[in-house]
Specification:
Order of helices and strands: HHHHHHHHEEEHHHHHH
Structural class: mainly alpha
Organism: Cohnella endophytica
Helix content: 55-70%
Family: Belongs to the 'phage' integrase family.
CATH topology of the largest domain: hpI Integrase, Chain A
Number of helices: 14
Shape: globular
CATH architecture of the largest domain: Orthogonal Bundle
GO biological process, one term: DNA recombination
Largest sheet: 3 strands, antiparallel
Radius of gyration: 23 Å
Protein name: Integrase
InterPro entries: CB, DNA_brk_join_enz, Integrase-like_cat_sf, Integrase_catalytic, Integrase_recombinase_N, Tyrosine_recombinase_XerCD
Number of strands: 3
Length: about 325
């Protein structure tokens, strides 16, 4: 009995400084996931997605207690995401970049999955009597329609950074690496000098920074190896080996995801890119599509991208009807008969 009273006292004292009654339980959930060894990126996703939920709860149900939470509350929140929420609402730096209301079903599913994980934990740990997670369904999503850049747009983006300045040259190298290797942006930003084999023209993506937790070796072109070598040498001159990271700020600290995202967006504006989202992930789609169009096979592409199966690779390759016609003209069994 004393343990129950003590636990209630902790709950009460915690609720005084928190924004919503559910925050205490999310803190417990987060500590459990940290103990399980989840990657920092995954933990950050849980945090950011909970903040969106927290913001909605604080407006709609500011005093809602965990034992009062129902499936209807969760469905209301899902409906809010689909019809009312803006993409970066509440984000510290990206909030003003998108004002359109209603998230895509794919984005809603990403946030719903992390919410379901939280709800499942609460039920498994005995905090929730009902298994709400099993009653929350994901949205039906049409085939992936994220396109890539056209070749002309690739050249325009590469020409956008001012290479006479350190930050401009660094951005140029980052763009080239993303286009040439298909690395995820966080994989690129966490590269160190030791991950580069400039003579062998390969990049090692360590297990600790790979999204799937498995290391892989990614090839790069001679040109990319040369400009990476030049950037590493410039970093040594500028910062005297204070950091082994490849992509640095003017003060020698590592370039962050939000900072890189903003730089890429600005270069897209300067290049006049329209009709396609200028984001780090679009570079990955572009690499995959152009790799296949240039004759690369899907099995080597799978290894380069670091995916477990070809079904994920297929989502990255966006071939237009014209691409299909060209491929058919070259590969049809009737060609040459």
């Amino acid at each position: 009995m004393s343990k129950v009273i003590a636990r209630r006292e902790r709950l009460t004292s915690a609720a005084v400084t928190l924004h919503h009654p559910l925050d205490y339980y999310f803190g417990t959930f987060l500590r459990a996931k940290e103990a399980e060894g989840l990657k920092p990126r995954t933990l950050n996703d849980h945090k950011s997605h909970y903040r969106y939920l927290q913001h909605w709860l604080a407006e709609q149900y500011p005093t809602l207690k965990l034992e009062e939470l129902t499936t209807d509350h969760i469905r209301q929140y899902v409906g809010h995401m689909l019809t009312e929420q803006t993409l970066y609402n509440g984000h510290p730096t990206l909030q003003s970049h998108s004002t359109a209301k209603g998230l895509s079903p794919a984005t809603v599913n990403i946030r719903t999955r992390t919410l379901k994980c939280f709800l499942r934990f609460l039920h498994d740990e005995g905090y929730l009597n009902s298994d709400l997670a099993s009653r929350v369904k994901l949205q039906k999503v049409t085939e992936d329609t994220i396109g890539g850049f056209e070749k002309e747009q690739v050249l325009q983006l590469l020409a956008a950074p001012n290479q006479r300045e350190y930050t401009g040259f660094r951005d140029y190298v980052l763009l080239a690496v993303l286009f040439d290797t298909g690395l995820r942006i966080n994989e690129a930003l966490n590269l160190t000098v030791d991950d580069l084999s400039l003579s062998g023209k390969t990049i090692t993506v360590r297990a600790s920074i790979a999204k799937n937790g498995k290391s892989r070796v990614v090839p790069m072109s001679k040109r990319t190896a040369e400009i990476l070598d030049a950037l590493v040498e410039e970093n040594r001159k500028q910062f005297r080996n204070r950091s082994s990271a490849v992509f640095l700020l003017n003060n020698g600290k590592t370039l962050t995801y939000n900072q890189a995202y903003e730089r890429i967006r600005l270069h897209g504006e300067a290049a006049g890119i329209t009709g396609v989202r200028v984001s780090p992930h679009t570079f990955r789609h572009t690499f995959a599509t152009l790799y296949v169009k240039n004759g690369g096979d899907p099995f080597s592409l799978q290894r380069i991208l670091g995916h477990h199966d070809l079904s994920m690779v297929r989502k990255y390759v966006q071939l237009s009807n014209r691409d299909l016609q060209e491929q058919h003209a070259q590969s049809s069994p009737l060609v040459g008969m």
